[in-house]
Specification:
It contains nine helices and nine strands. By secondary structure, it is of the alpha/beta class. The longest helix is centred in the N-terminal third of the chain and has 17 residues.
Length: about 260
């Protein structure tokens, strides 16, 4: 269970140059992936909302937001950050206290690394999400894993105790929970964490939102087909029809993706 010390540790890290740099790039990735989701009048549940940093971003983006976390200390921090702008619930990801299709969208950001049954948590997310699910995890196929995630006996580090995920593993989990759904994935923070700081050279090392399985932060948008994403007006051209920013793939039983943009 995450406690008040964990909350303070995370928020202290978020205020460091490396933490602020990482969160900025993670936010860019999430913004990129949800760019086609309609916002106004659409509800979003953030499972494992933590201290509410990304929940606040989703509220600022126009969603009607609800946060859920198993830690009372994390919920207290999120309530302090958002106040009446969000609803909050104490609960666990593998037994959500909501009806089927209760929300348009559900997010699971850095949750599946810290649960015993990732498939059960994903199944619950798909159950209560009417239109789509956004999942983000720490990537085992990244330089960041080598420096911060490799398990060490006796280590008290939350990151070294976590189960970091890889792209093939995540695609398999998504296929189990929502076979045939459209999936779009991207990563950020591809260089070692020593480059996570402001500066021209450092930004060049980490500038891309890439179709590259080796970034430290891996995110997947899963669209159920009940509300496929649209291209936002700001991303359209002046003279041509709107362009699809993130062409989705369909994950079938074989696990291979099929481009839907053609």
């Amino acid at each position: 269970m995450w406690n008040a010390e964990d909350v303070k540790s995370f928020l202290d890290w978020a205020d460091t140059p490396a933490g602020a740099f990482a969160l900025r790039h993670e936010r860019r990735l999430l913004q990129h992936l949800v760019s086609g989701w309609p916002r106004r009048g659409h509800s979003l549940l953030d499972v494992g909302c933590g201290p509410g940093i990304f929940l606040e971003y989703f509220w600022e983006s126009g969603f009607d937001v609800t946060g859920l976390d198993a830690s009372p200390d994390m919920l207290a921090a999120a309530r302090s950050r958002l106040g009446p702008r969000a609803d909050f619930h104490l609960g666990v990801g593998d037994h959500l206290p909501f009806e089927d299709n209760a929300f348009d969208y559900v997010t699971l950001l850095n949750v599946l690394e810290f649960v015993d049954d990732a498939a059960a948590v994903l199944a619950e997310a798909f159950r209560v999400a009417a239109r789509g699910v956004l999942v983000a995890v720490l990537n085992r196929w990244s330089p960041y894993y080598l420096s911060h995630g490799v398990p060490m006996p006796g280590s008290s580090s939350r990151l070294r105790q976590a189960r970091w995920r890889s792209l093939p593993e995540m695609l398999r989990l998504v296929r189990q929970g929502c076979g045939g759904c459209a999936v779009t994935w991207r990563t950020v923070l591809h260089a070692p964490s020593c480059t996570w700081r402001e500066g021209t050279l450092f930004n060049l090392c980490n500038r891309g939102i890439a179709l590259n399985p080796f970034g430290a932060y891996l995110a997947l948008r899963v669209d159920t087909g009940r509300g496929l994403p649209v291209t936002p007006l700001l991303l359209t051209t002046r003279k041509t029809a709107p362009m699809r920013v993130c062409p989705p793939t369909v994950v079938g039983r074989t696990g291979h993706g099929r481009d839907l943009s053609s």
